[in-house]
Amino acid sequence: MPPDASDGGSGATKPAKAKPVRAKACPICGKPATEASRPFCSERCRDVDLNRWLSGSYKIPAAPADDDEDN
């Protein structure tokens, strides 16, 4: 018997089973994120994050500007 005969003769292999996707934790409160507010758990946590960006609580690190580059 050929090796492919055990799968019905089609030669195709069984597809791998997908692992269930776990909801990632909300970066603000740690609750599971919802699809509607992803990556947050709610509109409230989205607004809290936006407020942190707008108020300057979050900062993106950057190298200090070198003023000698113009010369």
What is the string of SSEs from the N terminus onward? Answer: H
The averaged pLDDT comes out at 80
Could you tell me the radius of gyration in angstroms? 26 Å
Query: How many β strands by DSSP?
Result: 0
- β-strand amount: under 5%
CATH topology of the domain at 22-57: Erythroid Transcription Factor GATA-1, Chain A
CATH architecture of the domain at 22-57: 2-Layer Sandwich
Topology of helices and strands:
Layout: H1 43-55
Binding site for Zn(2+): 26, 29, 41, 45
Cofactor: Zn(2+)
Subunit structure: Interacts with GyrB.
Explain how this protein is built:
The longest helix is centred in the C-terminal third of the chain and has 13 residues. The protein has a domain of 36 residues: Erythroid Transcription Factor GATA-1, subunit A (Erythroid Transcription Factor GATA-1, Chain A). The N and C termini lie far apart (80 Å). The protein has 71 residues and is an all-alpha fold. It has one helix and no strands.
Summarize the structure.
By secondary structure, the protein is mainly α.
Keywords:
71 residues, mainly alpha, Erythroid Transcription Factor GATA-1, Chain A, 1 helix, flat, DNA gyrase inhibitor YacG, Znf_NHR/GATA, zinc, DNA_gyrase_inhibitor_YacG, metal-binding
